[in-house]
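Weekly sync, protein design subgroup
Attendees: M.S., D.O., the rotation student, P.L. (late)

Item 1: inverse folding check
M.S. brought a backbone from last month's batch and wanted to see whether the design step gives back something sensible before we order anything. D.O. pointed out we never logged the input encoding, so this time it goes straight into the notes. Structure tokens as presented (85 positions):
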């Protein structure tokens, strides 16, 4: 799937491997994403899903913890800059 990350004021498009979390995909792409616990507790890794679906989506809430969220659609836009870390 194609994932566009918005981070540090830049847009970076990467090809994501299915089954991996958004954080894994961002780390593999070396875009320097924020994270800490890797267990879904600290919320350091949060990002806003502007387009597409993930395993963590809840109605009316677009913020996901990227260390837990696995992409469920073929295209996503994931904005780290809009999350309040
Ligand atoms: S890294 Fe702590 S919640 Fe994702």
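Designed sequence read out in the meeting:
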């Amino acid at each position: 799937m194609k994932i566009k990350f918005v981070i540090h004021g830049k847009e970076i498009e990467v090809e994501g491997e299915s089954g991996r979390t958004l954080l894994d995909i961002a780390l593999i792409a070396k875009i320097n994403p924020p994270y800490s616990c890797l267990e879904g507790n600290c919320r350091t890794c949060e990002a806003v899903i502007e387009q597409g679906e993930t395993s963590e989506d809840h109605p009316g809430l677009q913020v996901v913890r990227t260390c837990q969220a696995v992409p469920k659609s073929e295209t996503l836009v994931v904005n780290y800059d809009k999350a309040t870390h």
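Discussion: The mean pLDDT is 94. The chain has one domain: 2-79.
Action: P.L. to compare against the previous round before Friday.
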